[in-house]
Fold each of these.
Amino acid sequence: MNFPSIGRAAVAAAVLGLCAGAPARAADIEGRWTLDLEATLKAASETVGPDDIKRMRNDLSAMASGFAMTFAGKALEVVAGDTVTRCDWAMGKDGYVLPSNCLDQAGKENDLDPEREAIRIERGVVRLIDKPSGLALILQRD
């Protein structure tokens, strides 16, 4: 995903990091998930300063209405503005979602990079986690 400046890292991290609890099942993630800007900013405020939160709010506000992840069966669709990425996915350990075979709308490999990003479901939210920063985008089910 291409998130602007600190917002990109924070958004990705917020979405993927989830709390511990009962193991997630594939049925727990079915449906459409959209960015919860306030929850993302609240979580990020525990590790970044007020100036970074302001930048994140500006960066993420613009993308909030155009960002969604939809899980249907074993298909994952990620919409980020004009970019649509489609993947296969499987449930991994500890609530982590393992995307594979990700292609953008032009049929090219996208940037859902497992070395850089992780997706996790826990306690009713999905987190798209930026591994380098530990920040995450938090998504709520529609």
Amino acid sequence: MSLAQKEMVEALKIQWKKLWQERIDDKVRAEGMATDDYCDLFVDRGTVIHATRDFKALSFSEILEQHQILNADRYIPPSPQVGGWNKFIKTNITNQQPRQKRRADSYVEAKREKQQPKKGGRGWLHK
């Protein structure tokens, strides 16, 4: 059962990417439209898939739920608003390991004794 679901999700992902790559962007109305029919994604040709105002965007997770795929969140990475995988790794994995001090961090450069400036600090005057 899970192999069939995984294959279906992969096929849907391919169609999803194709939908977004082949869309027509209308710059006057500030919206993107589908160029073909995508039956598995429940999108018809000419359907607005992206707009700037008062628009409910398409959601891949909702499409997976309509196909009755169990644990749809498992196939979709978290949204950038939540943080994504990189934020999860930074907050949960890398912070658990104690940071070792580097040798360069503990190095303190020895202070030099200042030399007397040439020509009494007036620079290189040739007069």
